Amino acid sequence: MTEPVDALNLTDDKRLAIVTGADGLAAVPEARDADRRWRRARAGDGVAEALLELLARGSATRGAFSIRSWTSRISKGERTVGVDQTNESVIVGDVAVVKWATHLQDGPHPAPRRISVLRHGGFKGMPSPWGVITWEPPNGAATLAANVDDYLPGAVDGWTWAVDLITDAARDHDCAPLAAATRRVGKVVAELHAALSETATLASRTDAARWRDGAFHTLDTVCALNDVTSTACARTYRLDIERILDRLGGLAGTPVIEGHGDLHVGQILRSQGRFLVTDFDGNPVLDAPQRMLPIPTALDVAGMTQSLAHAGIVAAKYTSLEPAALAAADAAGRAAFLDAYADRLTRLGHADLYDPRSLAAFRVQQVLREIVYAARHLPRWMYVPDTALPALLHEGTPE
Ligand code: ADP
Ligand code: MG
């Protein structure tokens, strides 16, 4: 095994190592084998348990590693999460999930501060954080190497729960259970934003110009793609789309917060009847400095709204549902989310944080980004934006 770039020793024979992987740096668990040589550890080797013991000793700085702890709890017994993941997670004692950042993001990383602010703000709608470990490279900004959260039994994300509820609503001609769920998600997102309100500032002209120019750039990229249904749609309706995106340029003075930044149904876990927000890594399509920037709350709201529409498109692909019933379910789920969000934010005294004028523009931008992403990395996802773009443009004045 080649020498790691850096390492945080947890015990004499367990460590968190920063190694050079096939596609960049990785933070991985390592353990010594019988001949004292370091090797990559797996669930069951006790490295995640050792990390909990380190966190239990409190916050500290060790070389380029910074340990932030919110618990003195420890636990034993490791198993893998067993789902497809970007990173690698180990469940310890059915109470904690240790996530090793096996794809180290370029720093600065938004999660540590956002999670701290949310904890401080008393936000309950996320898996309770136990701690975060960051690592600062010699010539760069600190990034997340590992984090530990409460384990949520039986958690599924919205690509399961939302798709199932939309399917049921369309099949049974009963939108009530779906609307009840999205209403609760709207409430949680409002509570998330209220808990982040201490980070609020006002957008500058430069911010507004960056949002507008970024969205126009994405539109140009989409229009230059070959032979995709949504590309033809984007070209046909280019002027309409530009008119919608142009509103972003007028957002100077709108409130911005250090929001989630990559909110969609896949980031909302349902566990034991609760809905919880996860993944504060920021938007993967932006570079690291941009991921840190404050955003209008409408960007998070748009991400969630548009992903509910996308969940409906996924539901339609895998089941034969009456288009009219599906459209009714789709509209009911989204309306309940938006209504509950605005209502809860107002009750919490933060109505001023939400400016819905940019909702349509951010929804269109989200679809455009997904077209680019599907074209470059995930062609089997293209049916979603192919259906979503014309639907969104024909929603009338999309909200
Ligand atoms: P990644 O972004 O690396 O794929 P996520 O944090 O989005 O990882 O989690 C991926 C999946 O792992 C989730 O969809 C969920 O099924 C599971 N998961 C994540 N966090 C928890 C948790 N705290 N408790 C239980 N399961 C979780
Ligand atoms: Mg995720």
Automatic annotation (TrEMBL):
Q: Does the keyword Transferase apply?
A: yes
Q: Where is the secretion signal located?
A: none
Q: Where does D-glucosamine bind?
A: 262, 370
Give the residues the record marks as binding ATP: 99, 157
Kindly list the cofactors needed. Answer: Mg(2+)
Quote the Gene3D superfamilies the UniProt record gives.
Answer: 3.90.1200.10
What subunit structure does UniProt give? Monomer.
Q: This chain belongs to which protein, by name?
A: Glucosamine kinase
Species per Swiss-Prot/TrEMBL record: Mycolicibacterium hodleri
